[in-house]
């Protein structure tokens, strides 16, 4: 198989390492390359890439939306979200998918199988691109409530417009979220706050956290953010950003190959790589 990643920049990406391990695990022969192109050259570069005989590729920033006009069709998730992170070559042409949200939800289920139950109360912090995918997947997962907190509540309100389910949702500002924290079973940090080099920053205090809650941060560099360190001090169960990264890659690999790789088998090795061990 001929696979790869389109983005700018992509030199730091861990995707080649992940997909090479998945190929080994599933006995799939192939390559995974980095395809870096500047925004000014993107359209012509993609048209050239169509002639390369790729079986599929991932798409990362800043091209998750700008790739769409180059595709033949979108799956339901990509269509709702207006963003694509995975493309598969088919007889009909390039089909776009979005595995971010389902990758996140399944990574939570892998780690904490009983936490996303039908009475679960979820708080999501942030309402950007990553939040859209996660919110969409969460409201499909059968939980009772998913509230969204943002510095600008109007942006959180806009996110709730995609909710056509029976799941309850409301928009909050960050102070309201912090004050009402004790009601939530799962708290998810979806912004870039706390990402290196600003690793001492945290979006809210977790002092009012519900005992035994699950706290997740999608930032994976550093692996243990200031937000997660605070969560640990409050006795929370921790869910790390690299688990989402790995699971969404597994979903992309399934789409391309039809195989069913096991993300958990790679998790320890992936953690060691992130820690530089």
TrEMBL record:
Active site location: 64
A Pfam short name: SDH_C
Matches recorded under InterPro entries: Aminoacid_DH-like_N_sf (IPR046346), NAD(P)-bd_dom_sf (IPR036291), SDH_C (IPR041121), Shikimate_DH (IPR011342), Shikimate_DH-bd_N (IPR013708), Shikimate_DH_fam (IPR022893), Shikm_DH/Glu-tRNA_Rdtase (IPR006151)
Any one GO biological process: aromatic amino acid family biosynthetic process
UniProt keyword list: Amino-acid biosynthesis, Aromatic amino acid biosynthesis, NADP, Oxidoreductase
Residues annotated to bind shikimate: 13-15, 60, 85, 100, 220, 248
HAMAP family (alphabetical): Shikimate_DH_AroE (MF_00222)
Protein name per its UniProtKB record: Shikimate dehydrogenase (NADP(+))
Organism: Halobacillus locisalis
Gene symbol of the encoding locus: aroE
């Amino acid at each position: 198989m001929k696979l790869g990643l389109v983005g700018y920049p992509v030199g730091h990406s861990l995707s080649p390492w992940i997909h090479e391990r998945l190929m080994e695990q599933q006995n799939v022969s192939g390559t995974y390359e980095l395809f870096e192109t500047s925004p000014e050259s993107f359209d012509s570069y993609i048209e050239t890439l169509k002639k390369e005989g790729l079986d599929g590729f991932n798409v990362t920033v800043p091209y998750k939306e700008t790739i769409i006009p180059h595709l033949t069709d979108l799956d339901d998730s990509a269509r709702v979200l207006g963003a694509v992170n995975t493309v598969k070559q088919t007889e009909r042409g390039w089909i776009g998918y979005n595995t971010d949200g389902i990758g996140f939800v399944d990574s939570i289920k892998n780690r904490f199988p009983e936490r996303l139950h039908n009475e679960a109360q979820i708080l999501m912090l942030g309402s950007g691109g990553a939040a859209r995918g996660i919110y969409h997947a969460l409201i499909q997962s059968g939980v009772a409530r998913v509230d969204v907190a943002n510095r600008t509540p109007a942006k959180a309100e806009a996110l709730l417009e995609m909710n056509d389910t029976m799941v309850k949702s409301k928009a909050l500002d960050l102070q309201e979220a912090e004050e009402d924290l004790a009601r939530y079973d799962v708290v998810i940090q979806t912004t870039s706050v706390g990402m290196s080099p600003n690793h001492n920053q945290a979006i809210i205090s977790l002092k009012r956290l519900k005992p035994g809650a699950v706290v997740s941060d999608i930032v994976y560099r550093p692996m243990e953010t200031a937000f997660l360190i605070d969560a640990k001090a409050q006795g929370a169960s921790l869910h790390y950003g690299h688990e989402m990264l790995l699971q969404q890659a597994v979903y992309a690999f399934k789409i391309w190959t039809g195989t069913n790789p096991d993300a958990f088998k790679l998790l320890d090795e992936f953690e060691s790589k992130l820690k530089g061990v």
